[in-house]
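Re-run with default settings, no changes from the original entry. Doing this only to confirm the output is reproducible before filing.
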Amino acid sequence: MSKSISITSPSEVVSLKLESAGNGDKIGGKLDLSIFNSAKSIRVSNLDITELGEISGLSFLETIDASNNKITNISNNFNVPASITNFNLNKNNLTETDIERILSAFVNTYGNVSAISPKPIIDISQFGNAVPNTAGLVHKDTLIANGWDVKYNPGDYVLSSDALSVTEGGPNLVINISRTVSDIADDTLVGYTVTGIDANDVAQSLSGSFTITDNVGSATFSIANDFGTDNYLEGESFVMTLNSPHNATSISIPIIDTTPAPYQFISFASREEGSVTFNITLSTTTGTTVPDNTQVGYTISGIQDADIAENLSGNFTLTNNTGTIPITVLSDADTEENETLTITLNAPYGAVSKDIRIFDQ
């Protein structure tokens, strides 16, 4: 099967036929275009190239546009003419190794890259023009630091989850991984580390690996209901970070704590107006102890300042795991509907509250 390369000279477009050597549609090796020594640019289209090697013979060649083909790897002896100012291999099936070989070829061809003017444009991005900080691309910093316009994106991983949060002892947490570029072989292992929680908070190990199949993978975690040993409302999050060199990729999932609140109210259910004082008692729950003189803040709502003699906020001071505050309900001359006095503990114990009905007299 034959494929073609269009070569644009200042006055004409010439089509060069390339015959495959018994390799289906795949073409590889050296492209010697010396007969077109006045050409300014070449456009390679609709080619499936297994190994792109030496491009030579065009001393005046300025542009090579081989984007949107199916170039699957770059030869380790790849080189380019020294006259190139625009090289486009965007949206081919390139790996990080391929990209590094291209960058290396330009550094080797031009030598003192800082002396080149105009600076060549090298577009070998997969999808978009991002320039990631990838350690494997050792020539990237040299070219960019000297003003070259290097556009590439070898792809990276993305972590996701259908869950916005996960509850202790609740349904399993599933973390998914995918690639932004489809260039990873099946059974590739990508390591991860989990932080933000303790080893006893999850049934699985805090480190492991995804197995990539068809550019995706997943890992399942069971968050333990450990309220017998942990602190109330720890504010934990399940944080997964991929191991180097992908350690810029992470995901954080808040954990909803199911540990019972350590305090409870003991008081009457209702009271009447009339300068009557009653006590509200706060105690720790069964099995919970706190040091004497522990301060626990509270806020009263549902009534006005003038309805009671005390402030609408304050602290319980606990001794022997209990604390008591007085509440004096004042009478007034207004006829009004019955009210509900609500006392609520301050954060992080805001789920602990008590309603007391106040009957108008």
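The domain at 157-256 is CATH 2.60.40.2030 (Immunoglobulin-like). The first strand starts at residue 2 and ends at 8.
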